UniProtKB/TrEMBL annotation:
Any single Gene Ontology cellular-component annotation: cytosol
Role summary: Catalyzes the conversion of acetate into acetyl-CoA (AcCoA), an essential intermediate at the junction of anabolic and catabolic pathways. AcsA undergoes a two-step reaction. In the first half reaction, AcsA combines acetate with ATP to form acetyl-adenylate (AcAMP) intermediate. In the second half reaction, it can then transfer the acetyl group from AcAMP to the sulfhydryl group of CoA, forming the product AcCoA.
Residues that hold Mg(2+) according to the record: V534, H536, V539
Cofactor(s) the protein requires to work: Mg(2+)
Classification via NCBIfam families: Ac_CoA_lig_AcsA (TIGR02188), PRK00174.1 (NF001208)
Gene Ontology biological process: acetyl-CoA biosynthetic process from acetate
Any one Gene Ontology molecular-function term assigned to this protein's record: metal ion binding
Stored InterPro entries: Ac_CoA_lig, ACAS_N, AMP-bd_C, AMP-bd_C_sf, AMP-binding_CS, AMP-dep_synth/lig_dom, ANL_N_sf
Recorded catalytic activity of this chain's protein: acetate + ATP + CoA = acetyl-CoA + AMP + diphosphate
Domain Acetyl-coenzyme A synthetase N-terminal: from-to ranges: 23-80
Keyword Heme assigned: no
Protein known as: Acetyl-coenzyme A synthetase
Length: 646
């Protein structure tokens, strides 16, 4: 891994919300006196009944219980909308940028208030009450955010299911949480292609008859079938409701949403987040990690179907009265300059995206970036997977023109918000490192026996105390919650990630520990080998998995996607093996390299290693569930060209 250091630019140190002294001071306080620290931070919200209890947490085996601000009451939609009306009613809350560059819209806080109240009243008219679960299966249009906020307004619990999921996945998620109401659209639109959301919903509902009301938002105007007595058009229903909807008084620990994790094993888990602590945490991380200053335009490219969309497209920005950009499209449509053009069009200051998107854009070269101005950009962010130093450097040099710090933010659906990340005005950056913990976060690194390691070390990442944004349970299965996260290391939350800490106390996430390969008794982070491969000028993307090796225990199997215009060859194969061998050491040399035109990914862009492992093991007959793949055709090519044929 690169150990290059980028110091905090002087102007950032001078004007950022958090400088190094503030970081050290606040971090110390947050660990020494969590009650006092969070009691103060809780005040960033408007409470109906103020809390007197701040933290009530146990990680004890068999007795895990997590409560924050438990006797306080509030309404989340009031905190995201109503309280801003007096000072920023006419400020834009959402800029919507459609799939087609000609489609866009601006929604002010005042308009958002009206729209959310209307949607809430439509839900109420359908009989939705406090505590009921509502499934949202929507494209990235403003109505998706209205739906989420409308649920929060009336105390219903939303479960957003990504619009790219299949009918089966949707049905499973509806059933698991027992939703009786579904909000969807006729069709979605991505890269000019129609996504048949209503037809998918119909197929899903044929399997789960639980849903008694389906609210359909008109997006493309396509003809869709409407079931009498069950389905209603939103634009018709909304004509009959009032513009005002009194907010429900909620306890801080009342559920806010359920979000299913794209389970690598078993059925997806319904991660449950509650109201007060979650909003305090996403509001605070949004403000400080992105150093958000009034009137700036913030763009997080995540879909609201993922936790990043929940926390940093909708709730964090709105809680802070920010302007958030909602993007319906994809980064390379209609051209590979789209992202940079959108930044110029709307004057985006802060841009937050995933390494996989950056690598794809990087593959297109510098020209599509350089032909745009990007002068509005101040800060860049990364999330979702370890960012390889090669992509980091490109992001910094080409996209940010050496002017914009990069915040590499490590967190999970389960954590609600960012846990490890730099503060741009305080933290010197190292490409590939998420750097240091956020306030109140206590990362520890343990070995396989659970022994806590000190100083510079490498092992499994655990968290020994709670933070307000932590998930509270797996919906309907507290036992599974405790087993999954609290049984591996007693009295600690196990992240499932491997991690290295360097001499400066910086954290380097090495990837899921189930992705760690043991080669001749040496542990090898797949991310490290991938990073090395991707640093080769002819390589665009790489994924590395282990496979059974008669002498080494596990061998290293690398799937490599080449840059446009590069041809696979035996020579290049040898060159890459030598490259990695030289870069990391002989133990890291790939045993097998398969050139792959593309890699199997979930619709959120995560490489599906489970599939790659099976193919590497020559066990492709039992690939399991491939329904969450964005392009199932990729797998056939991988199988046909597998390198480990027996
Ligand atoms: C927010 C989100 C969580 C897993 C997590 C880790 C990986 C996320 C990362 C990162 C290295 C980062 N991950 N951010 N790894 N550096 N900055 O992505 O949530 O979809 O639940 O994924 O993603 O492995 O455990 P989620």
């Amino acid at each position: 891994m690169s150990e290059k250091v980028y110091p905090v630019p002087q102007d950032w140190a001078a004007r950022a919300l958090i400088d190094e002294a503030a970081y050290r001071d606040m971090y110390d306080r947050s660990i020494k006196d969590p009650e006092g620290f969070w009691a103060e931070q809780g005040k960033r919200l408007d409470w109906i009944k103020p809390y007197t209890k701040v933290k009530n947490v146990s990680f004890a085996p068999g007795k895990v219980s997590i409560k924050w601000f438990e006797d306080g009451t509030l309404n989340l939609s009031v905190n995201c909308i109503d309280r801003h009306l007096a000072t920023r009613g006419d400020q834009v809350a959402f800029i919507w940028e459609g799939d087609d560059p000609k489609d866009d819209a601006k929604i002010t806080y005042r308009q958002l208030h009206t729209e959310v109240c209307r949607m809430a009243n439509v839900l109420k008219a359908q009989g939705v009450k406090k505590g009921d679960r509502v499934t949202i299966y929507m494209p990235m249009i403003p109505e998706a955010t209205y739906a989420m906020l409308a649920c929060a307004r009336i105390g219903a619990v939303h479960s957003v299911v990504f619009g790219g999921f299949s009918p089966d996945s949707l049905a499973g998620r509806i059933e698991d949480c027992g939703s009786t109401c579904l909000i969807t659209a006729d069709e979605g639109l991505r890269a000019g292609k129609k996504v048949p959301l209503k037809a998918n919903a119909d197929a899903a509902l044929a399997k789960s008859p639980l849903v008694t009301s389906v609210i359909v938002v008109k997006r493309t105007g396509a003809a869709v079938s409407m079931t009498e007595g069950r389905d209603l058009w939103y634009h018709e229903a909304v004509k009959n409701v009032s513009d005002n909807c009194p907010p429900e008084e909620m306890s801080a620990e009342d559920p806010l949403f359920i979000l299913y994790t794209s389970g690598s094993t078993g059925k997806p888990k319904g991660v449950l987040h509650t109201t007060g602590g979650y909003l305090v945490y996403v509001s605070m991380t949004f403000q400080y990690v992105f150093d958000y200053q009034d009137a700036e335009i913030f763009w997080c490219t995540a879909d609201v179907g993922w936790v990043t969309g929940h926390s940093y497209v909708v709730y964090g920005p709105l809680a802070c009265g920010a302007t958030s950009l909602l993007f319906e499209g994809v980064p390379n449509y209609p051209s590979v300059s789209r992202v940079w053009e959108v930044i110029d069009k709307h004057g985006v200051s802060i841009f937050y995206t995933a390494p996989t998107a950056l690598r794809a854009l990087m593959q297109a070269g510098d020209e599509p970036v350089k032909k745009t101005s990007r002068k509005s950009l101040r800060l860049l962010g990364s999330v979702g997977e370890p960012i390889n130093p090669e992509a980091w450097e490109w992001y910094h040099r080409v996209v940010g023109e050496d002017r914009c710090p990069i915040v590499d933010t490590w967190w999970q659906t389960e954590t609600g918000g960012i846990l490890i990340a730099p503060f741009p005005g305080a933290t010197a950056l190292k490409p590939g490192s998420a750097t240091r913990p956020f306030f109140g976060v206590q990362p520890k690194i343990v070995d396989a026996e659970g022994e806590v390691l000190e100083g510079a070390c490498e092992g499994n990442l655990i968290l020994t105390d709670s933070w307000p944004g932590q998930m509270r349970t797996v919906y309907g299965d507290h036992q599974r919650f405790m087993e999954t996260y609290f049984s591996t290391y007693p009295n600690a939350y196990f992240t499932g990630d491997g991690c290295r800490r360097d001499d400066d106390g910086y954290y380097w996430i090495t990837g899921r520990v189930d992705d760690v390969i043991n080669v001749s008794g040496h542990r090898m982070g797949t991310a490290e080998v991938e990073s090395s491969l991707v640093a080769h000028s002819k390589v665009s993307e790489a994924a590395v998995v282990g496979y059974p090796h008669s002498i080494k225990g596990q061998g290293i199997y690398a799937y490599v996607t080449l840059m446009a215009g590069e041809e696979p060859s035996e020579e290049l194969r040898k060159e890459l093996v030598q490259w990695v061998r030289k870069d990391i050491g002989p133990i890291a040399s790939p045993d097998l390299i398969q050139f792959a035109p593309s890699l199997p990914k979930t619709r959120s862009g995560k490489i599906m290693r489970r599939i790659l492992r099976k193919i590497a093991e020559d066990e492709y007959g039992s690939l399991g569930d491939t329904s969450t793949l964005s392009d199932p055709g990729v797998v056939d090519d991988l199988i046909a060209n597998r390198q480990n044929k027996r």
